[in-house]
Amino acid sequence: MQDAFVVALERWEVDGAPSNPGAWIVTTARNHAIDRVRRESSRAARQHAASHLERQRQPSGSDEVREGGPLRDDRLRLVFTCCHPALQVPAQVALTLRLLGGLSTEEIARAFLVSEATMAQRLVRAKRKIRDARIPYRVPSADLLPERLPGVLGVVYLVFNEGYAATAGDALVRDDLCEESVRLARLLAELLPDEPEALGLLALLLLTASRRAARTTADGSLVLLADQDRSRWDASAIAEGAGLVERALRMRRPGPYQLQAAIAAVHAHAATADETDWVEIVGLYDALLRLNPSPVVALNRAVAVAELDGPAAALPLLDRLPELDDYYLFHATRADLLRRLGRRDDARRSYERAIGLTANGTERAFLQTRVDALG
């Protein structure tokens, strides 16, 4: 590869850069590797390696060379490569987020609702397995993409979540992560148009991102969904996302991303918060729980139940989720239900617990205003 860069420095200054510099570099490096194998050894194994490379050889000056088969995007190609089926999907996702997603171990730990130390150990184990099993770093062929899709979707989804509600810092939103995850989701939908979960993920990200401009005030303060100015929502993103949801659901292979997108679509179609169809949302959460019986889904369902049947009906549902005791949104939700029930002291304690569990300045400031409002 270093030889290829030397050639590039010499030739591009004279001939100009090719239209696909990355492919040019890789192809030139491959050709140099073939020449080196032939030059340095006559052993049968080395000659066999040279023959294998020769079958893939293409002219180094060709501007039309494309690497990675159907995966034309460099980052998406790397994500698929890292999501190797020899690892369990959670390990694929966590390791790829750390290596490629730009997320810290702390941010990944929050996404998986575990401690930073626990996540660090999981990452070490995943790396050790790759090393010990000698898992190859190889771009998968087109027929292998579907088996890696769950991990890839999980990576893109969690990158978006970190962008939409940052783990730490003063800003609520990290626009770069939101935009990159939407871009990758769009590429996935184009690459695998018959995979309903790929369509569902893109729909979910578009519908969620459509509210981004209305989530904060001019001074950066957090605005809850019910209080947002819906005229600031992105109508084109909502239209595209809703269309994708309908297209995915017509395939009759429902999945978690499609159902989450359907829930987001119900919110998007309500002209005001009071017009939200909470009956449909609770029903969709019931279906989502059957597919993905996670405590976070159960927490979100409890929020919907509170809107449909009142906070007294929802509070017992939170008591069934002790595994979320270190999750700030669990305590923030509990505090809001207690506040609505008039239990001010209990609400204050829950708000303070939530404040202690989040490192995001915007969220902490919002929760503090709730504490102050209790008097």
Helical amount among residues, as a percent range?
55-70%
- Give the distance, in angstroms, between the N- and C-terminal Cα atoms: 66 Å
Strand order of the largest sheet: 1-2
Q: What global shape is seen?
A: elongated
Number of helices: 18
Low-confidence stretches: 59-68
Please give the number of β-strands.
2
User: What proportion of the residues form beta strands (DSSP E)?
Assistant: under 5%
Name some characteristics of this structure.
375 residues; mainly alpha; two-stranded parallel sheet; 2 strands; 66% helix; elongated
Structural features, described:
The protein has 375 residues and is an all-alpha fold. It is 66% helix and 1% strand. The chain contains 18 helices and 2 strands. It has helices at 2-15, 21-40, 44-55, 74-82, 89-99, 105-112, 116-132, 145-164, 175-191, 196-209, 235-249, 256-269, 278-291, 295-309, 311-318, 328-340, 344-357, 361-373, and strands at residues 168-169, 359-360. It has a two-stranded parallel ribbon with strand order 1-2. The N and C termini lie far apart (66 Å). The relative contact order is 0.06. Mean pLDDT is 91; it is low at 59-68.
Write the SSE topology.
Blueprint: H1 2-15, H2 21-40, H3 44-55, H4 74-82, H5 89-99, H6 105-112, H7 116-132, H8 145-164, E1 168-169, H9 175-191, H10 196-209, H11 235-249, H12 256-269, H13 278-291, H14 295-309, H15 311-318, H16 328-340, H17 344-357, E2 359-360, H18 361-373
Helix pairs in contact: 1-2, 2-3, 5-7, 5-8, 6-7, 8-9, 8-10, 9-10, 10-11, 10-12, 11-12, 12-13, 13-14, 14-15, 15-16, 16-17, 17-18
